């Protein structure tokens, strides 16, 4: 066995500034089995000199309602805000990319990279009194793979896990189909956190409304479309090194208020009806920064930026020249500047800056060029009619653009702007705003363009969206219907390549090919923002920009 404290490295890289807009520089990638000297993520409000006040209730406005609080079945980032309070993971990922102990105290990796053996804490219990042990770990990862669980992103995160062996009560070996540089880091993500086996068996499909973990807060209630309440776990003493307070949180409760209307959410923070609120619209950020009673927390998320996927299963977008015409006609800079007022960064790649392997050379490479776009469509035989819309063989050139409701992050507005931009080259854009994205996009594939993003810590996330093996698999998979054997090979090599430089080169090739083949139109990097009363102290973030409430207290 190769001990982790030797040369084994996890190839997970993230930026270190978690409160200001992130710089886009990848961090170092080292695994460590000690939490000595591990620095917690900073906040805009420097750690106060006064002792944290115990008690109180933090009201926190969410932009949308979670789909479920079962981490293995959730597909929404908003759900993670609450899931993180209730559940823990085997390991924690720090901002510099290092992997640190959490529920596991240490681990070793086999020479062939096909098994990970974890030693577990022996003092942990789930909120329902069930002991945390090796059997619980095995149950959780097997549950994710079980088709009856209907796992969402969690199944992709633990890939290529295949089985677990219980060595003794507090030692478990996880076995993989193939080596994976992403596996250890992915075990730190909230969507593969550990649930109570007792509760999972008791509640079945309803675990998401009755979540039980080992986390710093216990689930109390979920009032549909209104609020989710969690309360302090008095027995908690195994926090990750991402926070200072290693024991029970200071707050009595956190109440997540569901507030999808921007004006209501921001107004509630400004009026003091809630103490904090997330996802601040760009037009409010500058004003809130000047408000003496409020503070603003901001952190760019990692993984895949908000991206428009062009469906190659639909003609004429299976033609490279047709996709290149869209690429040349869509002015992304104008969209980002108009809608986000300098508060969002433009995306250039299938990955965000700060994600390991990000190819900075792509920045500035794609520029709007209407002459080029028109020429490409001319070459394909599409001729403009009297109404300005191109047609070929009697069929008008239309593009079916699907987006979800509500208007999250002004994504509906992006569709409206692109509708006008593509009108200039004779493409008629039909925009469909729907609440049933799952049926229209994922089940029926009835779209020419659809936008999506994903928070993730490793470029292995590219597999689900761009590997041909994911084309016919379920939700959150290959949205552009992209099939390229060379790209498949680079993604497969990237999963097992241990040399960091070579791995970076492989993912650079993947990103370049995706842009050169006009598979997507990257739009923006999402900054997670929180507005809060200045009485709220010490909000921290995990390495993917999800808020942590272990250290939070309310100044009297």
Write the layout of secondary structure elements.
Elements: E1 2-3, E2 57-62, H1 77-86, E3 91-93, E4 99-101, E5 104-109, E6 115-120, H2 134-145, H3 153-158, E7 161-168, E8 171-176, H4 183-186, H5 197-203, E9 217-223, E10 227-232, E11 253-258, H6 262-271, E12 276-278, H7 282-289, E13 294-300, E14 303-310, H8 320-329, H9 332-340, E15 345-346, H10 370-379, E16 383-384, E17 390-392, E18 395-396, E19 398-404, H11 411-423, E20 428-434, H12 437-443, E21 449-455, H13 462-466, H14 485-496, H15 500-516, E22 520-525, E23 527-533, E24 536-537, E25 540-541, E26 547-548, E27 553-554
Parallel strand pairs: 2-11, 2-12, 19-20, 19-21
Antiparallel strand pairs: 1-5, 3-4, 5-6, 6-8, 7-8, 9-10, 10-11, 12-23, 13-23, 14-21, 14-22, 15-22, 16-17, 17-18, 24-27, 25-26
Describe this structure in words.
With 556 residues, the chain is an alpha+beta fold. The chain folds into 2 domains: 2-300 and 528-554, D-Maltodextrin-Binding Protein, domain 2, CATH 3.40.190; 304-525, Dipeptide-binding Protein, Domain 3 (Dipeptide-binding Protein, domain 3, Roll). The protein contains 15 helices and 27 strands. The strands form 7 sheets. Strands 9-10-11-2-12-23-13 form a 7-stranded mixed beta sheet, sandwiched between helices. A 6-stranded mixed beta sheet has the order 15-22-14-21-19-20, with helices on both faces. A 5-stranded antiparallel beta sheet has the order 1-5-6-8-7, covered by helices on one side. A hairpin with a 5-residue loop joins β5 and β6 (115-120). The radius of gyration is 23 Å and the shape is globular. It starts with a strand and ends with a strand. Residues 1-48 and 472-476 have low confidence and may be disordered.
């Amino acid at each position: 066995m190769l001990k982790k404290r030797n040369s084994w490295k996890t190839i997970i890289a993230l930026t270190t500034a978690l409160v200001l807009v992130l710089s886009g520089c990848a961090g170092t990638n080292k695994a460590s089995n000690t939490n000595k000297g591990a620095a917690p993520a900073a906040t805009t409000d420097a750690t106060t000199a006064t002792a944290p006040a115990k008690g109180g209730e933090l009201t926190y406005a969410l932009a949308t309602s979670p789909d479920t609080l079962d981490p293995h079945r959730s597909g929404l980032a908003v759900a993670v805000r609450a899931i993180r309070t209730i559940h823990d993971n085997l390991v924690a990922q720090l901002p510099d990319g290092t992997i640190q102990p959490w529920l596991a105290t240490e681990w070793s990796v086999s020479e062939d990279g096909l098994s990970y053996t974890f030693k577990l804490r022996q003092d942990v219990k789930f909120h329902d009194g069930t002991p945390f042990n090796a059997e619980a770990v095995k149950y959780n990862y097997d549950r994710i793979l079980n088709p009856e669980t209907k796992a969402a992103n969690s199944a992709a995160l633990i890939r290529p896990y295949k089985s677990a062996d219980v060595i003794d009560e507090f030692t478990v070996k996880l076995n993989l189909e193939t080596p994976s540089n992403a596996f250890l880091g992915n075990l730190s993500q909230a969507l593969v956190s550990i649930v109570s086996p007792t509760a999972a068996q008791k509640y079945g499909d309803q675990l998401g409304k009755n979540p039980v973990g080992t986390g710093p807060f216990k689930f109390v209630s979920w009032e549909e479309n209104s609020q989710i309440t969690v309360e302090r776990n008095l027995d908690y003493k195994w926090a990750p090194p991402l926070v200072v307070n290693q024991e029970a949180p200071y707050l009595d409760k956190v109440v997540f208020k569901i507030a999808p209307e921007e004006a209501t959410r921001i107004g509630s923070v400004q009026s003091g009806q809630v103490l904090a609120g997330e996802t601040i619209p760009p037009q409010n950020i500058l004003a809130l920064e000047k408000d003496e009673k409020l503070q603003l927390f901001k952190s760019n998320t990692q993984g895949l930026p908000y991206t428009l996927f062009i469906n190659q299963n639909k003609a004429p977008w299976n033609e490279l020249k047709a996709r290149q015409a869209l690429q040349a006609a869509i002015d992304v800079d104008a969209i980002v500047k108009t809608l986000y007022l300098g508060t969002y960064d433009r995306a250039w790649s299938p990955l965000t800056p700060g994600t390991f392997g990000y190819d900075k050379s792509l920045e500035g490479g794609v520029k709007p060029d209407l002459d080029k776009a028109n020429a490409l469509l001319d070459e394909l035989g599409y001729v403009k009619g009297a109404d300005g819309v191109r047609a070929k063989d009697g069929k008008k050139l239309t593009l079916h653009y699907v987006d979800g409701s509500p208007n999250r992050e002004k994504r509906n507005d992006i569709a409206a702007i692109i509708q006008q931009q593509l009108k200039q080259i004779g493409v008629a854009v039909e925009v469909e705003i729907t609440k049933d994205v799952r049926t229209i996009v994922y089940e029926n594939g009835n779209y020419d363009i659809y936008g999506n993003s994903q928070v993730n810590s490793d470029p292995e996330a590219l597999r689900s969206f761009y590997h041909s093996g994911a084309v016919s698999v379920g939700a959150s998979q290959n949205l552009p219907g992209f099939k390229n054997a060379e790209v498949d090979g680079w993604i497969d090599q990237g999963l097992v390549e241990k040399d960091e430089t070579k791995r970076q080169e492989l993912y650079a090739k993947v990103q370049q090919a995706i842009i050169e083949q006009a598979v997507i139109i990257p739009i923006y990097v999402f900054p997670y923002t929180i507005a809060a009363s200045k009485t709220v102290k010490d909000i921290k973030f995990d390495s993917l920009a999800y808020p942590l409430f272990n250290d939070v207290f309310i100044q009297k």
